Amino acid sequence: MNYRETLQAVNTEKALSIIGINPTVQGGYAKFDCPQCDQKALIKLYGDKKNLYYCPKCHVSGHIISLTMKLKGLEWEAAKNLLLGKAVNVTKKITEEFHHSYELHYTDFLEKKGISKDICSLLEVGVPKGKTMLAGCVAFPVKDEEGMLVAYWGIRMKDEKPVFHKTFSPENYLFGFSNIDFDYDVYFTTDIFKCLQLIDSGLQCVCNFGLPYISKVQMDLLGQVERVTFSLNADLVKPFAIELAQTRNKYYRFINE
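-> structure tokens emitted (257 positions)
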């Protein structure tokens, strides 16, 4: 794995534990003692800056590999291999159907995103009513490749940040995959709203829930499709998409969003 792939593959909390750090998790970040001063540094747990850290006091910055090199006295390859050997994300698919049902409604937010009420109704997408974990979010049903509902994934309307239960791993699923016909072209995007727009226009589309990479499971799912169009501009995703195109005897093309 290269540098970027390693940062995405490594579980931050496991990695910090391996190098002797006991972090405090707060939302999408973990706090730990800065290796250079007496302040708390912050490291990102997920997203496009996953495993990058920064200290607001002394301004030292780096990533989990360089931090491992510093604290364990290792060279680059040894530090990377240590993390890949002991701290890689291990995700499990959900095997039981999700039975909780939300009362979902269509809002101006979805209309402004160019998403029709009809497609939201068809795909069971909307904003939950009442006090729930996904209050204030657009909720999207997550189904496995057989069509079983396993979870809900949300986007907060105020800042468009993802919200989901910690037992659900986006790496194991593709939104919309259970609905596709393998005889026809399929679009892939990292933008969930773009995905709905494409489906609304009559195209088949799947989404990886906004992850800045394509997981092994997602690559295997896409590998079942004969013709895939990658509609994206996320630089971190492109290497995974290119790898998929080069290693599978399928047809792929790329367009910019």
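The mean pLDDT is 87.
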